[in-house]
Amino acid sequence: MPDESTPAAVDPDAAPRTLTPAERIAPSRHDPLVAAASRPAGGPLGEHAAVGRHWFWSPQRVGLALAVFALVLCWFGKASCIQQYTDSSGANQLDWRSGRPFVAMCYSDIVPLYSSEKLDDPHTFPYVSSWQEDSPTAQDQTRYMEYPVVTGLFQWVDAKLAAAWLSVADSGWLPAALPVAVYFNITAFFLALAWLVTVWATGRTTKRRPWDAVLVAISPLVLVHTFTNFDAIATACTAVGILAWSRRRPEIAGVLLGLGVAAKLYPLLLLGVLFLLCLRAGKLRTWGRTALFTVLTWLVVNVPFILVATRGWWEFFRLNTLRPMDPDSLYNVIASTTGWAGFDGMLHKGQTPVVLNVVVAVLFLACCAGIGYVTLTAPRRPRLGQLAFLAVAAFLLTNKVWSPQYSLWLVPLAVLAIPRWRPLLGWMVLDALVWVPRMFYYLGIDHKGLPEGWFLGTVVIRDLAVAGLCVLVLREIYRPRTDLVRLSGDDDPAGGVLDRARDRLRLPGFRGHRTTTTGPAQQSPAEPEGLC
């Protein structure tokens, strides 16, 4: 029996070939959930079906069409929060009366940030302009834009576009509305484009399994959270960066990851994942080019603000250091159920939660060390999607904040890591349902909301579901024969230069597996291994 750690022999330096439609995996043939869902459309794909003959409806376009439908539903879900009413003085006001954002479950950060970040002021510019916080308990009342540079500039540009729209609307050429409603709709339009890019890039990366991108398109998390905040920008940069890496364009991948890090910090985790994989494969030069372009891109975006508006640029990092544990973190679950206040103590607003920050850092670094161990001891080098999912999931599970829209980060990575529709949809449904008790918890018991226990219970269930997916990924890493991607004959579709590359470094580990290669030929046990 051939060693399960050795794929079929191919030239590792050859360019990836284009798969014919007949070589693609049809989930309706293999996944019972997809097979059942396909019955209204005629059932699973037949053995002799003509595949790839339609002039327009490719798997990619079907996925994008479904994503458009899901994004429209998401917009309708948030639209209740941009309705207006006429007050007693005859002025139009945003209708957030009687806890509408929580009762209608339409809350979006985009709406309150329009005024709280002073985007409604035409004379402000992110990181340069400051304002005084209204809270009398804050030690330092001077505030600046609190988002990373790409996200902050994205909000400012949308505010300027909203102002231009209203200027044209005043002349009668466009429909008029409240400024915040126009701003929300413009922002939602660009966030929708960003999520479509995420779907497109994920579908192009999966290669033999293009239909798996449908999970990214119709995820319940898309229906709830695409317009909750601005995270679709980072998911788009990350997904296209992974696509560029899979096409063996490390410089382009670095530029895109650098833009992603300048929008949200989590794409930086992928750079660490690539380092571990390239270390095992002896591809550190390629990784170095990606890392160099990531750093250069981040510097190009950030250095002007560091030099001109240092304090405003630092606001994002300052607030994250000062931020206490959020209600959606496991630390809050522990503190609420046990009554222990050791994480934050009796801190006043503005003081740094030192103990909590140290615990978060230690736990996450321990998870990173574990991921490094898995990478270097697995019988076959893990796929990029598998390690990327583990890294981001570990970050979220150990972090002191898990804002609801952060779950969008996991969606495309989960599809690349575990193309199993039932467990993925199960987790996505559970994660999306956390929104319901969250909204009614924030509504408050005095206003017929839910007690904290209901919300914390769903948070625990969500975290257990994510942890369960991590266990499934680890099982498939150590048992490659259970990995659906590798069962179909692929090695690492997102791996780029790592796809079917030889191992150059591997540590003895799980079950005492002997050192093997993941390249086109089996390496002699007596042949020394090293770094190239």
From TrEMBL:
<dbReference type="InterPro" id="IPR016570">
    <property type="entry name" value="UCP010361"/>
</dbReference>
<keyword id="KW-0808">Transferase</keyword>
<feature type="compositionally biased region" description="Polar residues">
    <location>
        <begin position="515"/>
        <end position="525"/>
    </location>
</feature>
<feature type="transmembrane region" description="Helical">
    <location>
        <begin position="252"/>
        <end position="279"/>
    </location>
</feature>
<feature type="transmembrane region" description="Helical">
    <location>
        <begin position="213"/>
        <end position="246"/>
    </location>
</feature>
<comment type="similarity">
    <text>Belongs to the glycosyltransferase 87 family.</text>
</comment>
<feature type="transmembrane region" description="Helical">
    <location>
        <begin position="424"/>
        <end position="442"/>
    </location>
</feature>
<dbReference type="InterPro" id="IPR018584">
    <property type="entry name" value="GT87"/>
</dbReference>
<keyword id="KW-1003">Cell membrane</keyword>
<feature type="region of interest" description="Disordered">
    <location>
        <begin position="1"/>
        <end position="23"/>
    </location>
</feature>
<keyword id="KW-1133">Transmembrane helix</keyword>
<dbReference type="GO" id="GO:0005886">
    <property type="term" value="C:plasma membrane"/>
</dbReference>
<dbReference type="Pfam" id="PF09594">
    <property type="entry name" value="GT87"/>
</dbReference>
<protein>
    <submittedName>
        <fullName>Putative membrane protein</fullName>
    </submittedName>
</protein>
<feature type="transmembrane region" description="Helical">
    <location>
        <begin position="291"/>
        <end position="309"/>
    </location>
</feature>
<dbReference type="GO" id="GO:0016758">
    <property type="term" value="F:hexosyltransferase activity"/>
</dbReference>
<feature type="region of interest" description="Disordered">
    <location>
        <begin position="510"/>
        <end position="532"/>
    </location>
</feature>
<keyword id="KW-0472">Membrane</keyword>
<feature type="transmembrane region" description="Helical">
    <location>
        <begin position="354"/>
        <end position="378"/>
    </location>
</feature>
<feature type="transmembrane region" description="Helical">
    <location>
        <begin position="62"/>
        <end position="85"/>
    </location>
</feature>
<keyword id="KW-0812">Transmembrane</keyword>
<feature type="transmembrane region" description="Helical">
    <location>
        <begin position="454"/>
        <end position="474"/>
    </location>
</feature>
<feature type="transmembrane region" description="Helical">
    <location>
        <begin position="180"/>
        <end position="201"/>
    </location>
</feature>
